[in-house]
Specification:
heterodimer; A: mainly alpha; MetI-like fold; flat; disordered C terminus; B: alpha/beta; Rossmann fold; 6-stranded mixed beta sheet; 12 strands; globular; disordered N terminus; binds adenosine-5'-diphosphate; binds magnesium ion; ABC_transporter-like_CS (chain B); ABC_transporter-like_ATP-bd (chain B); amino-acid transport (chain B); Ectoine/hydroxyectoine ABC transporter ATP-binding protein EhuA (chain B)
């Protein structure tokens, strides 16, 4: 049994970087899919609702892993073009987690009081303006906590990509294990790496949530140094509005 | 609207120049519940008209039809001589497109029982957002006008507050300013004080009295505040079961109504 050498550490950090990239690109695609499908599922035309609902059911019902196999192995046979492994993985993860995310978007939009839309109609806003200026800003803070959960799930889901040959943390860890012949140290290292990534995501999303709430007057905006910004200091949650009434 | 279009049966061609709102044989049902049954009534420009009547008689439904939050099952509604939810095409009356309805609706403002301010915008932006993005006012113009309106409703110092930081009475006064900022010809007021704590009612009613006396805006008002109704109304309509059973001056309706049903209702609420 051997030490994890500097070269092997290099492999692990390459893997970490790939995992970060996968997570960021997949999350970006998933966010676009979540908003497009989620809003389409509240559309007034039934055909739009039907098609977007079908997307949701299909992608929720199939696993990201199977989808990845399809995109990487089957699509080239059927259509004759081959995606690089990284983009096949991003596509599979983005489409799948986008379907989950669409449920978050749909639910949060539906939860905004109907009276808010009526007030928008009374001021002659167009449907698009009502959505952009009234509905989405109020739905957004409600979306952030479930989006955080999905993002963590997505991070963990990136471990699937080693099956199509993408060199993420999990794949590199296996290489390192083969080289050292020792499982415990390297798997402990990647355990910590995943945990740190998840922790950073959660802290980042807390900041996003606080800003989202402040932007609709639900909590005072926090100021302070970088530690406060990242939420690394324990924050005392202030409840509700600070203003007075007369 | 084209001048050469042939009137059909549904259209009432005689439009008095001063008539701002006309309901023509309007029927509204919710399932089997017929809330408005062949309702005819009109409101002249500049008048302050109050709708009274028991709960469930269809008063809110009338205001929501005017605001296009509901559409009539039968009949037509005109505002300023234009059909609200219909359009004339080739001499025929067809359901109006979204764009036509929005144009006609710009003449109408509404204040809701529950205020319905936008919690994601500060007070000033609640008032300026529609003038800027719907009417196309410049930001400076809209800001200036909004501050004047805030002064008028006694909230000149609250421009930068969020709605959640205001009392109900203050929120309702902002909602009035927001509706007025669109310079509507007619203002719809649906029990605007009934969600307020008793001590906050007077402030809101004073603002409305001031508007009624200092502007020529047409007001269509549903209220249980009978003293207020007496002060501002040119005309009072007594509703029961979706029909106007009596209409007249405030003096007449509150002082010496013709109908037994009106008498009963007033003695119950006064
Ligand atoms: N959205 C709705 N769905 C079903 N029934 C409704 C709806 N809105 C109002 N109604 C019914 O219509 C009738 C008139 O209601 P409304 O116009 O609110 O009366 P008012 O304002 O005079 O109290 C009531 O019987 C009420 O139950
Ligand atoms: Mg009512």
């Amino acid at each position: 049994m051997n030490e994890i050498t500097a070269g092997l550490w290099g492999l692990l950090f390459d893997g970490l970087w790939i995992t970060v990239q996968l997570t960021v690109y997949s999350a970006a695609l998933a966010a676009v899919v979540a908003f497009v499908i989620g809003l389409a599922r509240t559309h007034r035309l039934w055909i739009v609702r039907f098609l977007s609902g079908a997307y949701f059911e299909i992608f929720r019902g199939t696993s990201a892993l199977i989808l990845m196999f399809w995109i990487f192995f089957v699509v080239p046979l059927l259509f004759g073009w081959q995606l690089v492994p990284m983009w096949a993985a991003v596509l599979a993860l983005g489409l799948t987690y986008g379907a989950y995310g669409s449920e978050v978007v749909r639910g949060s939009v539906a939860a905004v009081a109907p009276a808010q839309r009526e007030a928008g109609i009374a001021l002659s806003f167009t449907s698009a303006q009502q959505l952009r200026k009234i509905i989405l800003p109020q739905a957004w803070p409600e979306m952030v906590p479930p989006f955080n959960n999905l993002l963590i799930e997505l991070l963990k889901g990136t471990a699937l990509v080693s099956v199509v040959g993408v060199g993420d943390i999990t794949r590199e860890a296996n290489l390192v294990r083969n080289a050292t012949g020792d499982s415990a140290p390297v798997f402990t290292v990647i355990l910590v790496m995943y945990f740190v990534l998840a922790f950073v995501i959660t802290r980042g999303m807390r900041v996003v949530e606080r800003q989202a709430k402040a932007s609709i007057g639900q909590a005072p905006p926090k100021s302070g140094g970088i530690t406060a910004k990242l939420g690394l200091r324990q924050q005392v949650e202030t409840s509700q509005s600070a203003g007075g009434s007369s | 609207m084209s001048a050469d279009s042939t009137p059909t049966d549904n259209i009432n061609p005689a439009v008095d120049g001063s008539e701002l709102i006309r309901f023509d044989k309007v029927t509204k049902r919710f399932g089997s519940n017929v809330v408005l049954d062949n309702l005819d009534f009109s409101v002249n420009s500049g008048k302050h008209v109050t709708l009274i009547g028991p709960s469930g008689s269809g008063k809110t439904t009338i205001l929501r039809l005017l605001m296009t939050l509901l559409s009539p099952d039968e009949g037509t509604i005109k505002v300023g001589g234009e059909y609200l939810t219909h359009e004339e095409r080739g001499g025929k009356l067809v359901p109006a497109g979204e764009k036509h309805t929005r144009e006609v609706r710009k003449n109408i403002g509404m204040v809701f029982q529950q205020f319905n301010l936008f919690p994601n915008m500060k007070v000033l932006r609640n008032i300026t957002e529609a003038p800027v993005h719907v009417l196309g006012l410049s930001k400076d113009e809209a800001d200036e006008r909004a501050r004047e309106l805030l002064d008028q409703v006694g909230l000149g110092d609250k421009a930068d507050a969020y709605p959640s930081q205001l009392s109900g009475g203050q929120q309702q006064r902002v909602a009035i300013a927001r509706a007025l900022a669109m310079r509507p010809q007619v203002l719809l007021l649906d029990e605007v004080t009934s969600a307020l704590d008793p001590e906050l009612v007077a402030g809101v009613l004073d603002v409305l009295r001031d508007i009624a006396h200092s502007t020529d805006i047409t007001m269509l008002c549903v209220t249980h505040e009978m003293n207020f109704a007496r002060d501002i109304s040119d005309q009072v309509l007594m509703f029961d079961s979706g029909r106007v059973i009596e209409s007249g001056s405030a003096e007449k309706i509150f002082g010496d109504p013709d109908h037994e049903r009106t008498r009963e209702f007033l003695s119950a609420v006064l």
